[in-house]
Amino acid sequence: MNTLIDLRYHREYRARKGGHGMGKKMHGKNGEDLVIPVPVGTVIRDADTKDVIADLDGNGMEVIAARGGRGGLGNSHFATPVRQAPRFAQPGEPGEEHSLIIELKLLADIGLIGLPNAGKSTLLSAISSARPKIAEYPFTTLRPVLGVVKLEDYRSFVVADIPGLIEGAHRGVGLGFQFLRHVERTSMLLHLIDVSETGQGDPVENFKKINGEIALYNQELVRKPQSVVGTKLDIAGNGEKLDRLEQYCTRNNMDFFPVSAATGAGIKRLLSSVSGKLEAMKGKL
Ligand SMILES: Nc1nc2c(ncn2[C@@H]2O[C@H](COP(=O)(O)OP(=O)(O)OP(=O)(O)O)[C@@H](O)[C@H]2O)c(=O)[nH]1
Ligand SMILES: [Mg+2]
Predict the structure, then answer these.
(1) The pTM is what?
(2) Following CA atoms 176, 59, 220, 281 in sequence, which dihedral angle do they give, to the nearest 10 degrees?
């Protein structure tokens, strides 16, 4: 899941009751657990004390927010050789009831993903006042760097430059899991792909490689909104890679933005699209 939208329209959750016990020493059916799925990065607090009950910052984490009541015991449980049919029993107890505040704690609105050297840090430095280290070798960025992007209309959003992903990241290759954990805690992804003449490999294969890693790590993560950005447009040569990637995106119904962080080409269009999408998502929440 990417948002808490389901909880917005469904505010009260109540697990089903267990069944009644019956004659012949029969145990009633246990009540079923009610499981409420939430996105990674969800923080759960007690509404009265504001204490944090859980910080679900990893995939698959669980917390028991309210325990079910203890089931009752029928009179046969209290039978003894001298008191064979006791006239008392122990009633079941009601389950817990709590008011909770459930919030999504994000690292940033946007996460920049892509292979090492794709130009993520360069793009961040072009659109914000952040100054991440930039170099022509892979794995320049070792941990996320945040930058605030300010638009002309006073709107702003936070972009996280996430260290380069490589094949095997879901198994922990590179800085693997750590990177992917950060990717989970954003609302939307920009997938950067080098379309320059000198860039490594085929742009479409590179795109599939990274999304494949993300899917292997967490199926839900590939469903996060993603736009494709072709980087280094200024050195795209005859534009062969650019065209291939663009056609692929069109065929697969994905937004594609060719940009150059060096000349500024395409950046404005990219930012206004991103800001529009973020607004739309906030509206939904
Ligand atoms: N000509 C040109 N070069 C670019 C552009 N964007 C990035 N580069 C160059 O590409 C190289 C890699 O850029 P980075 O921004 O460090 O790449 P990165 O994706 O952050 O790489 P990692 O941190 O290693 O994952 C640097 O030498 C940049 O100068 C661009 O728009 N035009
Ligand atoms: Mg970098």
Answers:
(1) 0.78
(2) -100
